[in-house]
Every structure is written in structure tokens, then in C-alpha cells.
What we know:
The complex is a heterodimer. By secondary structure, chain A is mainly β. Chain A is built from no helices and eleven strands. In chain A, the strands form two sheets. In chain A, strands 2, 4, 5, 6, 9, 10 and 11 form a seven-stranded mixed sheet that branches. In chain A, strands 1-3-8-7 form a four-stranded antiparallel sheet, with no helix packed on it. In chain A, strand 9 (90-97) and strand 10 (106-108) form a beta hairpin. Chain A starts with a strand and ends with a strand. Chain B has strands at residues 9-13, 18-23, 33-38, 45-50, 55-56, 61-64, 70-75, 84-89, 104-109. In chain B, the strands form two sheets. Chain B has a five-stranded mixed sheet, with no helix packed on it. In chain B, strands 2-7-6-5 form a four-stranded antiparallel sheet, with no helix packed on it. Chain B is globular and about 40 Å long.
Amino acid sequence: GAVVSQHPSRVICKSGTSVKIECRSLDFQATTMFWYRQFPKQSLMLMATSNEGSKATYEQGVEKDKFLINHASLTLSTLTVTSAHPEDSSFYICSANDPRTGRYEQYFGPGTRLTVT
Amino acid sequence: DAKTTQPNSMESNEEEPVHLPCNHSTISGTDYIHWYRQLPSQGPEYVIHGLTSNVNNRMASLAIAEDRKSSTLILHRATLRDAAVYYCILPTSGTYKYIFGTGTRLKVLA
Lengths: 117, 110
């Protein structure tokens, strides 16, 4: 099956610094990738849709200048949390769609736990 | 976006079947029904999907009501490893977006 990886799996950073999270589709080309955020005991919240070669589409209430998304290739999307603050601490999950299937399944990465101190 | 409603939590005994319901009364004719599950501290895992007919795979079965306004995920023999949050999702047509509801937290008792 289609595999999606994320790096790093865990990261701790100081308040005010920026953190980059990578999302890779390992065995398929993903024209569309998605970024989610999940707080403890809560469901996944869609942050943005990332399309290869074009600007990301952000969901309402998500600050595009704070959460920079780049999808420069068909196998890699990155999420950069700029000027991170403790309230940005969360579990960040990416997913990718495999257009070869012609269907809507998304394949999810294992997640990145961000802790801002 | 078509919404889904699921019970917050359910319990099952190990080795017994589990029926996880999902209501999606505003579903449109072309909406697929997808089920995923999420184990603690992991990304969601695909379980099964369907459109109109009941579906079976090695993980589970999906029973879809005739009017498609509800569906049921069936785990035939629950194991402790099936303890997870199960999400029923109707992808947004044309955009492939998933909007996650609260899901059902399944607890499996030994």
C-alpha cells in the first residue's frame, strides 16, 4: 500500500523559533497533500491543502503567515511553523492522495509531535 | 460538506463482533463513505470504503443502508489491537478534503 513518512517524529523547540516538518510519499506521487493538527483528546483539524506547484489553500482561521506550506515536488510537502509559541504545541499529521487510484483515499503519515517551550 | 454523526464511545469484549454506526443523512449521491481508525499517537489508518454496496476486506466489513443515510463498520472478532478511535468520513467531492468528526472511541475488554 501507499506509504507516507514524516520527519521528525518529535521536535522540541524554544518559543520564537521556527520549525520545519517534512511529509513524503514514499512509493507514489502525490499531487495533493493535506496538513492536520490534533490536540490531546480531540479530533484531527484540517489546516490546509497543499497542491504540487501551486500555493496552499488554508482553512478558515488558520494563519497562512504562521504556517508556511511548500509542495515543491510530487513526493514532498513541508510545513514550517514560524515564531512558534507554546500554544502551537500539538500533533501535526500530513496525508497524501494517490491520483492513480482515481479515488478519494488519503494515506496518512505517522505524525509529528511538536512541543514549544 | 456532508456531516457524519457517531457515538462518542463503545465497548466490546474481545473475540466478539463490534458494530460501529455512522449517520450521514445529508449524503449526496456521489459521496463515498470512508472509515479510518487512529491508534494513540499515530496517524489515521485506512480501514474500508464504499459507495452503495456492502464491502468486505481483511480488516472489516462495511454495511451501507439502502438509502445511504447511515452505515455500519463491522469488526467480526474484536481484538485488543482494535482499540482505537474510528472515524466515518465523507470526502468533499472534487477537493478530496476530509473533515473529521469526533469519531467513536472503541474500548476492547479482555
